[in-house]
Description:
This protein is an alpha+beta fold.
Amino acid sequence: MAEYILDLTSLYSNIDEKVEINQDILFDSEYLVNSDIVELKKVHVIGNIEKNLNGQLLLSVKVEGVMVLEDAISLDLVDYPFSCEIDENIDEKVKKGENTLDLKEILWENIVLEVPLKFTEVKDFSEFHGDGWKLIDEDEVQKNHNPFGELLEEFGEE
């Protein structure tokens, strides 16, 4: 059985009170196909699965890792560290006939939620300019309320 497929028979049989999880998981490139993640470096997960008083299985883990994303401004590849906590009822995700859980699927569902809409490590915007345009940061926008002010002055309008 793969390292990320957890056998929960001992929980269902009341042999153990919880299943401890402390492992590194690698994600294949097939997971990354329809995401903004270029590469997902080793993901570490630590926590446990236990049965509550109602007999439901609860997953409680902390996930940490580094995803490689494309910088929104420079288009360079950058490391984006992330961490999240997962606390959820997993009864519906357990394969009943086998009493197994695919931990990788649950982790992936939560990791994609951590991908930022835009991410940049660019601090100096001066190198991003062209013929008649330049990239400015938010501080510059606040100082000059109209980013087209220079163009308007050039054409004699206000």
